[in-house]
Predict the structure.
Amino acid sequence: MTGQSTSERVRYPEFEARHPWLVRLLDAYHLSDEAVRADLAEQTALRGRSVACGPGCRNCCVDQVIPVSEFEVLGLWWYASEILEGQIQEELKQRLLGHGQVGECAFLVGGRCSVYPVRPFVCRQYYVFSKPCGPGENVYETRFKDAYRAGLDSARDLAWQLIPLYGVAEENVDWLFESGYISRKGKHLHTLPLDNIVMHMKTAAHLRKARNA
């Protein structure tokens, strides 16, 4: 969570044409962002206080357990391999190779989220009002009322984008959503073999080089 994103849906036409799952994932992220934006505007008016999160804020990227679905992970994998390049990709490779326990998020490069357009839902939804978190501060313990999870009313719409990706028939989406299907499918980001992304980065770079030869 490093600030609110723009109102336009990010687009990668070449890759979306190849990967139908990416279209649904980006649509879902956009739905979530729009719901979050409206929710935060309402909360700001009700509280008379502004959201404290902004560019460079990264306390929520440290010592946090991040639940993710396999398609959120696939989005991170794709973006790191196919979109990132140059020095930032090289720095991310080193972080992924050395990552294995809860600590600073592996995707945090130079103090900023290197995969911001495809950051997981949980990173898009948690906000803090009044003032930024202090170093090591657990806002839920120190000032619970300033902590807020936005955009939860969009959960069913998001389910309609994501649950069919698991091969589920549309007539079953609603009851699976009610039963917590996606959360049961989730994993914790820090427990995943993120170093495998590095090999995919190298393969993608080799293929790009071969195509351009």
